[in-house]
Amino acid sequence: MATDNQTLETYRAVYLTAEDLRVAASILYNAYHDDPFFIESFHSGDLSMYEQKLRGAIREELNELWQQEQTLIGLFEGERMLGVACIVSQQLPLGESRYWHWRLKMLISTGWQSTQALIKKESCLLEHLPSSNCGILQFIAVSPIEQKKGLGSKLVQAVLSWCDEQPEMDGVGVFASEHQHAQLFSQHGFTAIETLFIGKVEGELLFYRGQDNE
To answer: Carries keyword Transferase (predicted)?
Structure first.
């Protein structure tokens, strides 16, 4: 995977290996613990149950994306993973078309309502993306202990470098429910397509058009 070494400086953005998935899941769990969508979809008043559901959902989704050869990018300093980004293409059935084995694993990990919320979120994003050749930035996170170092920007840059190398893909969309996240994407060339409500959670659907498609 090509990256801008000058931009990334001492950091490297590479595809994850199977051995990286456990650490990636931990980074995502901590980063998304207070995410409005997951709180609304998974939290029913019991914090320990919510955390168990969130861990299970992230673990199952990462494993599914790995098995389906989707794009999992890690940001490393030496051997230490600092951040992770997961991009799904619409070649993988999403939303209402999700595979039954995925649905079953999610049902076991999170319950029926939470699984339905995940499916509805994807279906809503697919409905509003510009074409059926767009990727979705499913997860993007920097380890909480590595915050405020500009690593979020470096991780977004790695995603854009990857996107620009995919001539068959029109671009990448992301749903941002927090203003500072939407701002970060906007600073890197994402444009807001539409304000969406995923359940009761309001956010912006932003889209980056790959360089080959401008």
So the answer is: yes
DSSP 150: S
Full DSSP string of 48-99:
HHHHHHHHHHHHHHHHHHHHTT-EEEEEEETTEEEEEEEEE-TTS--GGG--
Q: Are 56 and 109 in contact (CB under 8 A)?
A: yes
pLDDT digits (tens, 9 = 90+) for 47-79: 999 999 999 999 999 999 999 999 999 999 999
Burial (0-12, 13-18, 19+ Cβ within 10 Å), 27: buried
- For 65, list phi and psi in degrees, rounded to 5: -65, -40
Question: What are the structural domains, with CATH classification, of the chain?
Answer: 12-209 (3.40.630.30)
Report how far residue 38's alpha carbon sits from residue 19's, in angstroms, rounded to the nearest whole number: 26
pTM reported for the whole predicted model: 0.90
Strands (E), 143-200: 171-176, 191-198
